[in-house]
Design a protein that fits this description.
single chain; 1 helix; four-stranded antiparallel sheet
């Protein structure tokens, strides 16, 4: 019942003339704030190598030329007293054969010396060089395994 009285009271109020209503502010166009200027700065590094490894190059190299040294298995040596005539044969983990002589490179290994039963390699990994050798294992009959 109170609602009906309140609605009736509101309807009984006289309408205000248009001039008596609160004045509205004139419409102003929205102000655009200027776009911030974007500045891209790039840090540039220089490295004086002076016999040192470049720290920005990856530690591992592209070994698309062949397998890693750890994957090689020595299968035979053709030894000659003339080092340029000696040859060695290897097999990698995929059973691919390699025949090399002194100075040849396969993967990350370079043949340094070929002996009667041993091959010496220079291996380059992680920017460092080390020397390793592989021995040809002989069976009692004298043939290699």
């Amino acid at each position: 019942m109170k609602r009906a009285i309140l609605v009736g009271a509101l309807c009984a109020l006289p309408a205000l003339p248009v001039a008596a209503q609160a004045p509205t502010a004139p419409a102003t166009p929205p102000q655009h704030t200027p776009e911030p200027e974007l500045v891209f700065e790039r840090e540039v590094y220089q490295y004086g190598a002076a016999g040192r490894r470049d720290p920005f190059r990856p530690l591992t190299s592209d070994n698309s030329a062949g397998p890693m040294f750890a994957e090689l298995q020595l299968t035979g040596i053709l030894y000659s007293t003339d080092p340029s005539q000696s040859r060695v044969s290897f097999r990698d983990s995929n059973k691919k054969q390699y025949r090399l002589r002194r100075g040849d490179t396969v993967g990350n290994a370079t043949v340094v010396d070929i002996g009667r039963t041993r091959v010496v390699f220079s291996i380059r990994e992680f920017g460092m060089t080390r020397t390793e050798s592989l021995e040809l294992k002989l069976t009692p009959e004298g043939a290699s395994r």
